[in-house]
UniProtKB/TrEMBL annotation:
Domain HTH rpiR-type: 15-91
UniProt keyword list: DNA-binding, Transcription, Transcription regulation
Top-rank taxon, per record: Bacteria
Species of provenance: Auraticoccus monumenti
Listed name of the protein: DNA-binding transcriptional regulator, MurR/RpiR family, contains HTH and SIS domains
A GO molecular function held by the record: DNA-binding transcription factor activity
CDD domains associated with the record: SIS_RpiR (cd05013)
């Protein structure tokens, strides 16, 4: 017997079971509507239930379930279950491709996963390095080194990058703060002026909160800079200057770590360029901060053994240079030497 399908997609078409049910609802009897309502809420149930169990769950009969299956384009309950299994498989594949991407397959061995990652990250770093405008970066570094205050905006994954840049610049004497919450960021942005710099970090360039904070800083008069993978994005349009990265990531979406690595490259470069702008202040503050935390670091075994030998056979005291800055630099040199020996 062939059931007439008024406008219902054919069984051979790649249409989901859910779409078939929704399309056929107006033609269903009250008993079939019970089945349809239950399946729309629990679409995978037929993979676990027999036809009798589904009928009992919905308060209908096996015959009604069969008529329901025919109405939506299947010859019976078994083909109906096969279609649901296919939908589940398609959904899983779509989820994998959307979140992980086509670069990796579930059955790939670790060696393949590793080589694919290295290739993508290396290409991203090389492409970013080749397209960086070093004159632009030098200009931004000079402005940061001489500014009254430096604001950094980043939400989500970009917040990690913003915090890293703040930590590095603060150690070399730059007045800066990173903002990851819109209201607090807008408050700070409104207090900026022509002697300030504001940087927004957004890989996609479409994070609304980041855009709004940067726009506010620009309105207040600060020099605004965008660090993004998308030079035509809204965050770039909101900035006076744009530093563009290049991430080849087509996997681990939307937060591909290849994008983070190229951002770290730019952050590291910017930090070093700022440090060069004021070598004297940078070396003094680095030495002072290293000296402050050194008592809280466990010395390497070789250093501890050397200290015990000195206790047994004291040497003449060190002759430090007279100036306090030279003394700090000397002590910082000793600390970093110990670090290299770890």
């Amino acid at each position: 017997m062939v059931t007439k399908q008024t406008g219902t997609p054919g069984a051979g078409e790649a249409v989901s079971v859910t779409s078939r049910i929704q399309h056929a609802l107006p033609e269903m009897s009250a008993a079939m509507v019970k089945i349809a309502t239950f399946l729309l809420q629990h679409p995978r149930t037929p993979l676990e239930y027999s036809i009798l169990e589904l009928a009992e769950e919905t308060g209908t009969s096996a015959a009604t379930v069969t008529r329901f299956c025919r109405l939506i384009g299947f010859s019976g309950y078994v083909p109906f279950r096969v279609a649901i299994a296919s939908d589940v498989g398609r959904d899983s594949a779509a989820s994998w491709q959307s979140d992980i991407g086509q670069e990796f397959r579930p059955e790939d061995p670790p060696t393949t996963v590793l080589s694919t990652l290295i290739s993508a990250h290396t290409r991203s770093l090389q492409q970013t390095a080749s397209q960086l405008d070093l004159d632009l970066l030098s200009l931004v570094a000079t402005r940061i080194a001489t500014c009254r205050h430096f604001d950094i905006y980043g939400i989500g994954g970009s917040a990690v990058m913003a915090a890293e840049l703040e930590a590095r610049l603060y150690r070399i004497g730059i007045s800066c703060h990173h903002w990851v919450e819109l209201h607090a960021g807008l408050t700070s942005a409104a207090l900026q002026d022509a002697e300030c710099v504001a940087l927004a970090i957004s890989n996609t360039g479409r994070t609304e909160s980041t855009i709004q904070m940067l726009q506010q800083a620009r309105t207040a008069g600060a020099l605004t800079v965008a660090l993004t993978n998308n030079p035509s994005s809204p965050v770039a349009a909101a900035a006076d200057l744009t530093i563009t990265t290049s991430a080849f990531g087509r996997f681990l979406q939307p937060d591909d770590l290849a994008a983070k690595h190229v951002q770290l490259l730019v952050i590291d470069l910017l930090y070093l360029l700022v440090a060069q702008q004021n070598y004297s202040r940078a070396t003094t503050t680095l030495a002072a901060t290293a000296l402050a935390v050194s008592p809280h670091r466990r010395a390497p075994r070789a250093v501890r053994a050397s200290a015990r030998r000195e206790e047994r056979h004291p040497r003449p005291p060190h002759q430090f240079p007279a100036g306090p800055q030279d003394r700090l630099t000397h002590e910082f040199s000793e600390i970093t030497t110990e670090g290299r020996n770890t």
